[in-house]
């Protein structure tokens, strides 16, 4: 029995480490990229112009990136985090599509794909306290997203078997 609880603790630590590693990477890129966008540094301005976007778009995008980075790192506010994850996902996948359709700086697609994957990983590994209430209750109760009882321990929520 002790090995099971030790194994579960180890899995929980690995999951938490994976979550924080992915979240820190995404939040750092959003924060630094957002500041660069707001400042319209020449490299970023030239890139965005070559992709066909107006330079004023950088201030809007940069502001949302910085706010998204903050949202991912502050405690609580699970619904705001969901929006931040969605915004990061749309930003990275939109950038991939922009690079591929214009053929400009296609070498950056790999980095953007990794950032997209890290965003999805961070979202998937987030602890129950960082999920909207309905999802965290479902996971804590031991139910799958489809409503089926999982094999793990948890309250029966009034169900009789």
Largest sheet: none
Order of helices and strands: HHHHHH
Q: Kindly state the percentage of residues in helix.
A: over 70%
Low-confidence stretches: 152-161
**Rg for CA atoms:** 19 Å
Count of helices?
Answer: 6
SS-based structural class?
mainly alpha
The overall strand count is 0
Shape: elongated
The average pLDDT is 86
**First-last Cα distance:** 24 Å
Describe this structure in words.
With 161 residues, the protein is mainly alpha-helical. 71% of the residues lie in helices and 0% in strands. The chain contains six helices and no strands. Helix 1 (2-39) crosses helix 5 (109-125) and helix 4 (78-102) runs antiparallel to helix 5 (109-125). The protein is elongated. The two termini are 24 Å apart. Mean pLDDT is 86; it is low at 152-161.
Question: Could you give a short description of this structure?
Answer:
The protein has 161 residues and is an all-alpha fold. It is built from six helices and no strands.
What is the strand and helix layout of this fold?
Blueprint: H1 2-39, H2 42-50, H3 57-73, H4 78-102, H5 109-125, H6 133-140
């Amino acid at each position: 029995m002790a090995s099971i609880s030790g194994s579960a603790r180890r899995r929980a630590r690995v999951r938490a480490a994976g979550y924080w590693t992915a979240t820190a990477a995404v939040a750092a890129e959003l924060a630094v990229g957002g500041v660069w966008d707001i400042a319209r540094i020449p490299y970023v301005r030239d890139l965005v112009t070559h992709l066909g976007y107006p330079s004023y778009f950088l201030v809007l995008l940069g502001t949302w990136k910085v706010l998204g980075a903050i949202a991912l790192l502050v405690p609580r506010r699970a619904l705001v985090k969901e929006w931040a994850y969605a915004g990061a996902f749309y930003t990275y996948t939109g950038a991939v599509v922009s690079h591929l359709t214009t053929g400009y700086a296609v070498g950056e697609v790999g980095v953007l794909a990794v950032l997209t994957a890290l965003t999805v990983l961070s979202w998937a590994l987030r602890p129950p306290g960082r999920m909207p209430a309905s999802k965290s209750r479902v996971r804590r109760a031991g139910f799958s997203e489809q409503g089926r009882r999982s094999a793990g321990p948890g309250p029966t929520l009034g169900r009789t078997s």
